[in-house]
Amino acid sequence: MRKLFLLPAFLLGILVVFQSCSKQSPSEAIAPISPNIINATIALNGSYQLPINNAGDVSISKQASHFQVSQTEVDSKSGLIVYKYVPAVDYRGTDEVVLSNIKTSLITGSGCSNNHVSNSENTTTSTTTYTTVKINITK
User: pTM to 2 decimals?
Assistant: First the structure.
């Protein structure tokens, strides 16, 4: 009777130990981030500037259609990355641009917290967020 209880307890103990040392890929560890949508209204022949906080590698994924200036750059005053938009001369209507922001993170160690060799491994993971800027140009 005693042996009947020892075997399941031993197997349960092994299951707990191996489960605690399971590895999780970096893509499973980070939840996906939903896209941001920004609605902006500017005057005819006006301009729009969007500061991008916590920027990684920012680029334009989908370029605007009706622009004189549509670019990302470093603001000389604040040092932040900004997106600048100036519509085509006398253009009225809507325009849209999609910005991508890729942030790379270093993950140190993985798996079991015991002194396994795998704890010395470092991996990098990238997270991409998208921001859609919808611009309405009025009179």
Answer: 0.66
